Amino acid sequence: MIANFSDHAANERTFLSWIRTGIAVIAFGFVIERFNLFLLTIAQAATGAIGAGEVRLPHLSSRVGRYEGLAFIFGGVGLVVLATIRFARTTRLLDKQEVHSADSIRTELFLAALLVLLVTSYSVYLAFQS
């Protein structure tokens, strides 16, 4: 039997939830980055089939979506890396018998603030594009 099994199982569940969150953030970044390409492709297909003139969606194809998409992708990768580092460190600390102090939560607060900033800025960008 593994010593402190319930603690190790809780650590692993927490690690896997952070991995799922990181994958979701990466996927959202891909969606944002490819959204403009998708809209332009649909618009070109629609105007080609109808025979109409100019495409009316060029203002949606800007660099903001691409850069924010990349920021979400790199943020998700950062979450996965941070989760892996914290999982390994917590596993080592659980195996030791002495009492440990609580960790600083500055990194988590910084990542949460960065995510809120990215989502807010992209929401404002989309709100003023109409």
What characteristics describe this protein?
mainly alpha; 0% strand; 130 residues
Low-pLDDT residue spans? none
* Biggest pleated-sheet summary: none
Q: What is the arithmetic mean of pLDDT? A: 78
> How many structural domains does the protein architecture include?
1
Q: How many distinct helices?
A: 3
Q: From N to C, what is the helix and strand string?
A: HHH
User: What's the total count of β strands?
Assistant: 0
Shape: elongated
- Give the structural class: mainly alpha
The fraction of residues assigned to DSSP E strands is under 5%
- The helical percent reads over 70%
Detailed description of the structure:
The protein is mainly α and 130 residues long. It has three helices and no strands. It has helices spanning 5-50, 63-95, 106-127.
Give a short summary of the structure.
This protein is an all-alpha fold. The protein has 3 helices and no strands. The protein is elongated, with a radius of gyration of 22 Å.
